Automatic annotation (TrEMBL):
Its main location: endoplasmic reticulum. It catalyses: a very-long-chain (3R)-3-hydroxyacyl-CoA = a very-long-chain (2E)-enoyl-CoA + H2O. This is Very-long-chain (3R)-3-hydroxyacyl-CoA dehydratase. It is a multi-pass membrane protein. It comes from Glossina fuscipes.
Length: 400
């Protein structure tokens, strides 16, 4: 019995010591785990390869090992926690070609080019659904050349926009739009509101006051029309800076023609401001734009509407000729006014030895600019309509 009591007492004495040793061992293990630092790693992909950007400056003792399904990294350098030893291990979602994969040191980062074994799109980088906190998506590299032999670089954000949006939402909690996209949304929405305002004011006043309001159209909405028409000069810059596709010549011709009529023919000649033709011209311009700008908004949002597309490329057929006719009438009516006032005309003699006759210029403008420019515009719209509303394209748009 005494021996049994001694054994029990010794066991009870040793138990706290054993617990303390276990706690110290667990602490030391957790401390070593916490001391294992990982650099920030940004990744992007194409169908053929994975690109990893490891943010580590002045890397020493660099060790990168590619296996058939993983990457092991270890190096000492300046990272997120200053000068330390950093390491990480990634088990990939699918197999890679370790022999063709390689890395290179560029400035303050290390770039790994990892070739996929099979050409496919990976829904994620790592094998497990839970990704490490130091692994980020490199959204800047989604616009890259997928194949150097292609004539034009592919935009991965357009080729795989659904996957791109899903990854963005997983990474930052919402879909991050580019500055260009946000600007284009605001611009088109603002222009739509501007022309809708003009159209609504004209219609409400006509409903309330009848035909008597026609002569006061410019008085009520002239300033608003001048503002939105001046803003349209931005549409000449959009294709130049790559915000939209196509040539800047078509929007330049259209915007210059409208502003020539609005500012020189109407704003500078008060007698023209009360003519009924101004009322009809403003309605035509506004009707065209309240269809065009919503169409652009749906295109930016990648949610095309078949009816809106049809309206955009059909409503110009009756409205453009009527608008051209109204502009021509305004110019013709202004010729005797400018002959009377000599506005913008320069007569000889003068110090520059130069003469300019505005009525003659208006006649030349009608025959040499308005008619040929209108033909070019109508031809361009006809070609665009054939491309957009071709039978196969229109059916596909209606089914989307």
């Amino acid at each position: 019995m005494p021996d049994l009591k001694n054994k029990i007492s010794m066991t009870l004495k040793d138990q706290p010591q054993q617990k303390l040793e276990i706690m110290q061992a667990n602490y030391s293990n957790s401390k070593s785990i916490l001391q294992q630092l990982s650099p920030f790693v940004y990744w992007a992909q194409t169908e053929k390869q994975i690109t990893l950007k490891i943010e580590l400056k002045d890397a020493k003792g660099l060790h990168i090992e590619f296996t058939s399904n993983a990457l092991n990294f270890k190096a000492k350098g300046y990272g997120a926690r200053g000068l330390n030893e950093y390491q990480f291990y990634i088990e990939f979602y699918a197999l890679i070609n370790s022999e063709e994969s390689y890395f290179r040191v560029i400035d303050s980062k290390i770039e790994c080019i990892i070739k996929k074994s099979e050409k496919s799109w990976w829904p994620r980088l790592v094998a497990t659904p839970q990704k490490p906190h130091w692994l980020k998506i490199d959204f800047d590299r989604w616009h890259i050349e997928d194949d150097r032999l292609d004539e034009k670089p592919r935009d991965i954000r357009q080729d795989y926009y659904r996957e791109y949006e899903r990854l963005q939402k997983e990474e930052i909690g919402y879909i991050k739009e580019s500055t260009k996209t946000v600007y284009m949304v605001f611009y088109n929405f603002a222009q739509f509101i501007g022309y809708l305002y003009i159209l609504c004011v004209i219609c409400i006043l006509y409903y309330r006051d009848g035909p008597d309001v026609i002569s006061k159209t410019y008085e009520y909405v002239g300033n608003a029309m001048k503002f939105v028409q001046l803003l349209q000069f931005l549409e000449v810059l959009h294709p130049i800076f790559g915000y939209t596709k196509g040539s800047p010549l078509i929007p330049l011709a259209q915007v210059m023609g409208r502003n020539f009529v609005l500012f020189l023919m109407i704003e500078w000649e008060e007698r023209m401001q009360t003519k009924p033709v101004v009322f009809y011209l403003f309605i035509i311009w506004s009707l065209v734009e309240v269809i065009r700008y919503p169409y652009y908004l749906t295109a930016i949002a990648k949610m095309p509407l078949a009816f809106l597309t049809w309206m955009r490329y059909t409503i110009w057929i009756p409205l453009y000729p009527m608008g051209i006719l109204c502009e021509g009438i305004i110019i013709l009516r202004n010729i005797p006014y400018f002959e009377e006032t000599k506005r913008f005309s320069v007569e000889m003699p003068n110090q520059f030895n130069f003469a300019f006759d505005m009525p003659t210029f208006l006649k030349i403008y009608l025959l040499g600019f308005l008619l040929p420019g209108s033909y070019m515009l109508v031809t361009h719209m006809a070609k665009s309509r054939a491309m957009k509303l071709g039978k196969k394209r229109f059916i596909r748009a209606a089914n989307d």
